[in-house]
Amino acid sequence: MHVLIDYREITVQSLLMSLSGMKTPPVHVEVAHLPLGDFFLVSKDTGVLIERKSTSDFISSLRSSRLWDQLLRFMKASTLLGHPLKQKLLIVHGTFDREPPVSWPQIMGAYMEILFVYDIPLIVCEDDEALYQCLRILIKREAQGKNEVLPGSHWFRKHCSPSLPEMDLRRYVLASIPSIGDVLAENLLDHFGTIAAVAHATEKQLRRVEGVGKKKAEKIHSIFH
Amino acid sequence: MHVLIDYREITVQSLLMSLSGMKTPPVHVEVAHLPLGDFFLVSKDTGVLIERKSTSDFISSLRSSRLWDQLLRFMKASTLLGHPLKQKLLIVHGTFDREPPVSWPQIMGAYMEILFVYDIPLIVCEDDEALYQCLRILIKREAQGKNEVLPGSHWFRKHCSPSLPEMDLRRYVLASIPSIGDVLAENLLDHFGTIAAVAHATEKQLRRVEGVGKKKAEKIHSIFH
DNA sequence: GCTGTCATTGCGTGA
DNA sequence: TCACGCAATGACAGC
Ligand SMILES: [Mg+2]
Ligand SMILES: [Mg+2]
What we know:
Two copies of one chain form a homodimer.
Chain A (H helix, E strand, L loop, with lengths): L1 E5 L3 H8 L10 E5 L6 E5 L2 E9 H7 L4 H11 L2 E2 L2 E11 L10 H14 L4 E4 L2 H16 L22 H10 L6 H11 L2 H6 L2 H4 L7 H11 L1
Parallel strand pairs in A: 1-2, 4-6, 6-7
Antiparallel strand pairs in A: 1-3, 3-4, 5-6
Helix pairs in contact in A: 6-7
The complex binds magnesium ion (2 copies).
The structure holds a DNA duplex (15 and 15 nucleotides).
């Protein structure tokens, strides 16, 4: 992965140079003259273009049309240095001074213009560490193709995983079935002895357990079979 | 313009009630039971749906994976209460605690997942004033039609593909066993077909499944028997 | 989401 | 041919 940093980004150059220490993927960082944007991530044949704006620059350029001209070109660009642009990102870097007091209406209006009108993704990095990690993770995710996939499944994680006595563990597993709680799990284990036995029970056998009626018996049986 | 606030958003209800003082446009605020999201802006026949997450909830739902489940439903929705959804927005509300130190890699990775994979616009509102102004400006811009996207912006928003992942209870139950995650749960079910079959398998049979070796076979077997 | 740790796997080596 | 050890891979659990 190649990372190009615009030569005018002197304030963060040394910070970002250390991206070249990355192992996965190996990163080659160099300073270049970018016709557009501030950072450019190139891998294979596609690129990710990033514009960084310090908060003070962001605020002061809100009124001028310079910001919006710049963002318009940013938005419209489809290639850079011969590489098709796969992704674009605007980074707002720093915190907003409290003195003079921030004008949230202005800032929010600008954010919405950027997000909704220009349709450019926006991330605020409040300090150098955040900026560094933002780019590091972006590079990593790009290399793994994680920014292109469709949403995946995430509901398998356990709420808690007690490395507790085995008996509690069994109850816990049974209780992960909806409509089975701690009490029913215990009753089932008392009656059948093992989860395997519960799994093999017929609906009729399940109904003999205290707390299990027609509905629960059906549900339990249908999950196991 | 009607603003519906979900009844569970008690912490910001009083703050946002004062939106009803707006003149342009006149705003009617009410608390409602929203099946999805936290705030809903309705004007004419279209709506803007907003999900608010406090930073602490953001972090904890990130750790439990609740976040992705919620965002998937958020992303999938195309109408709410009969109104087609024109726009969606995720607001992260608050600042990240320095104690314990924030993990920027985690947060940046989550931001990128939200922006690039779930394709949901994101705004961070660091305090109540920012949140209030964010909504006020959003309402104002909506009423003026200022949030319409410019022609020539990049590509279309990823939307509700019919085949985004659905919950599979059997995998969920298997994955509640420690040392079994979503991958192994799927492999086991592919191989055995049902949980009952997994429960009855011998250690030797279990080891024939990809990803199951000596240790996991022992563990699985001992839980079921 | 990310990171560190550890289990599994497949391969290369020698008996 | 088989048993074993090793390194690379990949999954899980914890944060
Ligand atoms: Mg810049
Ligand atoms: Mg919420």
